[in-house]
Design goal:
It contains 12 helices and 12 strands. It is an alpha+beta fold. The protein has a 6-stranded antiparallel beta sheet, with helices on both faces. The protein has a 6-stranded mixed beta sheet with strand order 8-9-7-10-11-12, sandwiched between helices. Strand 11 (475-479) and strand 12 form a beta hairpin. The longest helix is centred in the first third of the chain and has 67 residues, at 93-159.
Length: 489
């Protein structure tokens, strides 16, 4: 039996006893006999007990049992029990209470399900946002890497074009400045100046007056860029206004923003520097430094290739021993002068030189001395002619000088001057030659209207052989069908 039924039965028992006692007290008042009073007293106690028991049973069956079921249901649901429902308990207050409890817990269950669903959706949304953020970050990183690859590709493409060094450096500057977002930029090459290794600006961008920077140089250890040359590692200055070592490109750049210098290395040789500024003051991440070093490596390859092509071109068009133009260049210049002569109706002249007794010099002094004599002869001839003239070595000891806009007599005077200059020059091995000095024989020819330039050169050769047959160390002019000695006026 429930506590509620027991308490209700006890309350009914007490109420009956109290009521019976009050009635006994009132019986004498109404004139009841003592016998009746006694009988009433004997009957009141069993009736009270029966009334209490019946009341308790009724309350337990009608109220207590159902209330206990509701209470057990609530406790079970609060403790997370099975998701069952209370049965229908009628239409009275307890039944309505049971229905309300069912609705309450049904709503709570739905709310809990909704909360779980919302929590799952929230977690899914957070994961999606995290993935999107990671994807955006990776996309930015990928975009940066692609941009870096594009810059490296442009540098590589610039390096494979057949151009001279100056054009290459200008193209590299044009590619790097916008790609890297630079304010000022300078590319410096290592060169020997008066026996000192210096780094000279060969390309510049972003300056109000680039000519004020081009050609300027620094030594190793001078300024921030000089420190890079000395240590051979990149240096980044986030705020140049706070660094007294920053030279601000000899005052041509504002002292604000950041400055970065990168060494350009080819193998174990430092061949140059990249110097650049940005408007913002920021530190460079490791990835950026590695990217700049990769650019420097590509620039080094481009410079190396340009130098190799220049050397190959020099070998193809110039004499390796003397550095003078070779036969190929001479023939090209002869064709040019031939065309000019026909167009403008003026003559050009050709001087053919040959060293006298050169075989004797080689046999007596050896080939190294002979090579030194050839180099010195080339230097003397180049020093005594005009810039528009062409001095070429076309054979072992044979040289040719092309004189544009020069008549035969004028060319004879030039040949005589050159002959005397050679005889007076302290050329290696010259003292052992006949006459105590190295001498040359010269043949001179002037171009004729409608004559091929090769024919003019051939006539100069014939005049040369005439000079050698006449005793060497003299100048002969090719005139008409024969050659005659040049006589200074």
């Amino acid at each position: 039996m429930s506590k509620l039924a027991a308490r209700t039965g006890a309350l009914a028992l007490v109420s009956t006893v109290v009521g019976g006692a009050l009635l006994q007290l009132l019986l004498p008042v109404f004139g009841a006999s003592p016998l009746a009073w006694g009988l009433w007293s004997m009957a009141i106690m069993p009736a009270s007990l029966g009334a209490g028991v019946l009341t308790a049973i009724f309350v337990h069956w009608a109220i207590g049992r159902r209330m206990n079921q509701v209470a057990n249901f609530v406790e079970d649901r609060v403790q997370g029990g099975d998701l069952h429902r209370l049965p229908r308990m009628g239409g009275d207050e307890i039944g309505r209470t049971a229905d309300a409890v069912n609705k309450l817990f049904a709503n709570m269950t739905s709310l809990r399900v909704d909360m779980i669903d919302q929590e799952r959706e929230l977690l899914a949304t957070q994961e999606e946002l995290t993935l999107k953020a990671e994807l955006a970050e990776k996309s930015l990183a990928l975009e940066a890497r692609l941009k870096e690859r594009a810059v490296l590709f442009e540098v590589l493409r610039a390096s494979v074009r057949d151009r001279d060094m100056g054009e290459l450096l200008e193209d590299l500057a044009d590619e790097l400045v916008p790609a890297l977002g630079l304010r000022e930029f300078a590319l410096l090459l290592a060169e020997d100046v008066d026996g000192e290794r210096r780094f000279i600006v060969r390309a510049a961008r972003g300056f109000a007056d680039p000519t004020a920077v081009l050609g300027r140089s620094i030594a190793s250890g001078e300024g921030v860029a000089g420190e890079v040359a000395e240590r051979r590692r990149p240096i980044h200055v986030p705020d140049v206004s706070a660094d007294p070592a920053y030279l601000s490109f000899w005052g041509q750049a504002p002292r604000e923003g950041s400055f970065t210098a990168i060494p350009i290395e080819s193998g174990d040789q430092l061949i140059g520097l990249l110097a650049m500024t940005r408007s913002s003051s920021e530190r460079l991440a490791g990835e950026t430094v590695r990217f700049l070093r990769a650019i420097a490596d590509q620039v080094a390859m481009a410079i190396g290739r340009a130098r190799m092509l220049s050397e190959l071109s020099q070998l193809a068009t110039h004499d390796e021993l003397t550095g003078l133009p070779n036969r190929r260049i001479l023939l090209r210049q002869l064709e040019i002068e031939e065309a000019r002569a026909e167009r403008f109706d003026h003559a050009f002249s050709v001087l053919a030189f040959d060293i006298d007794h050169f075989k004797d010099l080689n046999d007596r002094e050896g080939h190294p001395t002979g090579d030194a004599a050839l180099r010195e002869l080339g230097r003397v001839l180049s020093a005594e002619v005009r810039k528009v003239d062409t001095v070429a070595r076309v054979g072992g000891e044979e040289f040719v000088v092309l004189l544009p806009k020069t008549t035969l007599l004028e060319a004879g005077a030039v040949a005589e001057k050159l002959r005397l200059a050679v005889a007076q020059a302290p050329i290696p091995g010259g003292k052992g030659q006949a006459g105590g000095c190295l001498t040359v024989s010269v043949g001179v020819a002037q171009s004729r209207l409608g004559e091929a330039s090769a024919e003019t050169w051939s006539r100069a050769d014939e005049a040369l052989y005439a000079a050698k047959r006449a005793g060497r160390n003299r100048v002969y002019l090719a005139e008409h069908q024969e050659a005659r000695p040049f006589v200074a006026s």
